[in-house]
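Thread amino acids onto this structure.
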């Protein structure tokens, strides 16, 4: 029997310094990304430690990360009651 493992869920954390995770430094923001297939991802539970919403720049950083490391072309997330769809090429 042959198995294939597909990554479908990612925990995302943000910091201002490189290698913060390996150095066990606290993070500034976090989110969960569900990779839905067809180069589409849905990001949920996105929040900053200071309680503010993610900024447009934060969302662009998430889009670039998912595009560059996982081939995602379209990012979806809720802002208020609206579903936002964002092409990662805009990032």
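Threaded sequence (91 positions):
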């Amino acid at each position: 029997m042959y198995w294939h493992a597909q990554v479908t869920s990612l925990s995302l954390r943000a910091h201002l310094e490189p290698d913060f995770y390996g150095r066990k430094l606290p993070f500034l923001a976090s989110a969960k990304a569900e990779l839905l297939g067809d180069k589409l991802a849905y990001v949920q539970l996105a929040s900053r430690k200071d309680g503010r919403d993610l900024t447009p720049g934060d969302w662009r950083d998430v889009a670039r990360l998912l595009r560059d490391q996982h081939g995602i072309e379209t990012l979806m997330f809720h802002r208020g009651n609206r579903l936002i769809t964002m092409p990662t090429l805009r990032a």
